[in-house]
């Protein structure tokens, strides 16, 4: 995956229940993840099986995009999940509209920086766009996924 692998794309039209977290620091992520897990459990996605794996993938993508925004963007950071019938639309925004998401290139994976690659593999579509003074990085994650043939958008 090269530099242009995280494409500039508008946010898809997401319809469903909207969950939102306003984050100011990386230290707030464990609480946000726990809240997301509780919300997923509340809609019946904690019983195991494929749906539970899909919930785990959403939480992982949420954590990766939110931590990237908190570490490399400008606060405040907003993370929004739209829970639709076929999956989730995850949108994370920060106040640094001049810096695009940049997947690590030629880096030892042990040094980190693989989060955007991971989210791209977990999602059926992904992208970013600028809206006024905010950069938005988004991904669409299915409620169920054939992990033997992961989507690469």
From TrEMBL:
Keywords, sorted A to Z: ATP-binding, Kinase, Nucleotide-binding, Serine/threonine-protein kinase, Transferase
SUPFAM superfamilies tied to this protein: ATPase domain of HSP90 chaperone/DNA topoisomerase II/histidine kinase
Record's keyword annotation contains Nucleotide-binding: yes
Domain named Histidine kinase/HSP90-like ATPase: residues: 36-138
Any one Gene Ontology molecular-function term assigned to this protein's record: protein serine/threonine kinase activity
Protein name: ATP-binding protein
Keyword Membrane set for record: no
Entry-linked Pfam families: HATPase_c_2
InterPro entries assigned to the protein according to its UniProt record, in alphabetical order: Anti-sigma-factor_SerPK, HATPase_C_sf, HATPase_dom
Domain of life assignment: Bacteria
